[in-house]
Amino acid sequence: MILCRKDYLLLRKHCLRKSVYSNEDRKQSNKTDGANHAESVSSEKGEDTVSPVGFEVPDNPSVEVEEHLISEDGNPCVRSGEEMQDDTSKTSPEMLMDGNQSSSSSSNKEESDNSVLTHEEMPHKDATSVQQPSTEDEQESIPRYSSAGGNMENDSELSKDARPVKSSRTVEDFETWQRIIRLDAVRANDEWVSYSTSQAAVSREKAIESAKAVCLKDYEHLEPHRIHHASRLVAILEAYAIYDPEIGYCQGMSDLLAPLLAVLEDDNEAFWCFAGFMRKARHNFRLDEVGIRRQLNMVSKIIKHKDFHLYRHLEMLQAEDCFFVYRMVVVMFRRELTFEQTLSLWEVMWADQAANRAGITKSSFEKLRLGAPPTDDLLLYAIAASVLQKRKLIIESYSSMDEIIRECNSMSGQLNIWKLLDDAHDLVVTLHDRIE
């Protein structure tokens, strides 16, 4: 993955341009009305029209906005009187599962605890309905997600499979993503504070400046560090929606990004790390849910091979598809574990995946007496282990899948991460050859 600051800033610039497009007509109308009014007043007084001191009215307002999209310190910003509205009344998200995401702000704690994972299913429109950038060359220069990885600066020389994803997403899709991203960002909790003292100590002035840079609103009730964190979430998630338009944004992606922001203070680095993370996680957010079904099916297989009695009980409840662990799969245990536990699980999971890519085989592990061989699906073994730990309660007390869902959603803060990882590795040793 090439950590190219120029490409990240280009993505941010494109995000802001799309926001400007959505309000361009209204802005132009307001500026024209103001200019006409000033000209009328000055004509009546017989004076030349003079701009206020220190402000020069540009001949082309849209050009003026574009020239100031990137500030001197490299942070994308826009100074505009029109800001993005967080009105979601026009959207109809599909409700998938109740969440338990907490919030340190008492004013929105109840709302955050009942947050949901939602996938926006916007109707695809013809490509002609998309408002194109000013030039064809600029459109081609925008970095896009590719199955080959890295930054695609010249896709004409790439094979078909390696080229950036082409999408029929529209400006309306992006505007919908913007609204939901802002809502999720403002609701984000501050568990990360103890891991980044410099970000926690940000001044209110800097926090407000970062909020204005991404046109964030409705943040007045938040502490400065949460405003700054929300602004970073917005900036990176919007850029990713442009980078990977096939996926765009779905609720739950902010849960995956938040831990990365806590340990990476540079937005450019955080974006490319998140893009790398999403190369595997993006399948959790596909509209066809192929990736989710595969993972739920594997959890079901693990339970069936390890504890057939529990599996038969799940069959009786018509829950053998393991849909009750849907949220765990989508956000990778983020809402069931504390912040520190999440970092521990993810680091072990990534180490396993790296070892697998390096070609470390089961025989190598046996020779070194290191126990469980590496697997790309350690997370799924951990999810199955968390269910198996509750087997007695599920068999003896629960008579519907809804009850199991409530039990899984109530695991937050109750899991022992090291016991969970030990059980997961035991499952890998026992079942790896039969499952994978």
Question: How is the secondary structure organized here?
Answer:
Layout: H1 5-45, H2 61-67, E1 94-98, H3 109-113, E2 116-119, H4 136-141, H5 171-187, H6 197-200, H7 204-213, H8 224-243, H9 253-263, H10 267-281, H11 290-306, H12 308-316, H13 326-330, H14 339-357, H15 362-368, H16 378-388, H17 391-397, H18 401-409, H19 417-435
Helix pairs in contact: 1-2, 1-8, 5-8, 7-8, 8-9, 8-10, 9-10, 11-12, 11-16, 16-19
Structure, explained:
- It is a single chain.
- The protein is mainly alpha-helical and 436 residues long.
- The chain has three domains: 5-67, no CATH class; 94-117 and 169-285, no CATH class; 290-435, Ypt/Rab-GAP domain of gyp1p, domain 3 (Cyclin A, domain 1, Orthogonal Bundle).
- It has 19 helices and two strands.
- A two-stranded antiparallel ribbon has the order 1-2.
- Helix 8 crosses helix 9.
- The model is unreliable at 45-140 and 150-164 (pLDDT under 50).
- This is Rab-GAP TBC domain-containing protein.
- One of its GO terms (molecular function) is GTPase activator activity.
Outline:
The chain is mostly helical and 436 residues long. It has 19 helices and 2 strands.
- Walk across the major sheet and give the strand order: 1-2
- In CATH, the architecture of the largest domain is Orthogonal Bundle
CATH homology superfamily name of the largest domain: Ypt/Rab-GAP domain of gyp1p, domain 3
Strand content: under 5%
Q: Write down the CATH topology of the largest domain.
A: Cyclin A, domain 1
Average pLDDT figure? 74
Query: What is the overall number of helices?
Result: 19
N-end to C-end Cα span:
28 Å
Number of strands: 2
Which overall shape is indicated by the principal axes computed on the Cα atoms? elongated
Secondary-structure element string:
HHEHEHHHHHHHHHHHHHHHH
Largest beta-sheet characterization: 2 strands, antiparallel
Computed structural class: mainly alpha
Low-confidence stretches: 45-140, 150-164
Determine and state the CATH class of the largest domain. Mainly Alpha
Rounded to the nearest angstrom, the radius of gyration is 25 Å
Q: Percent of residues in helical segments?
A: 40-55%
Number of domains: 3
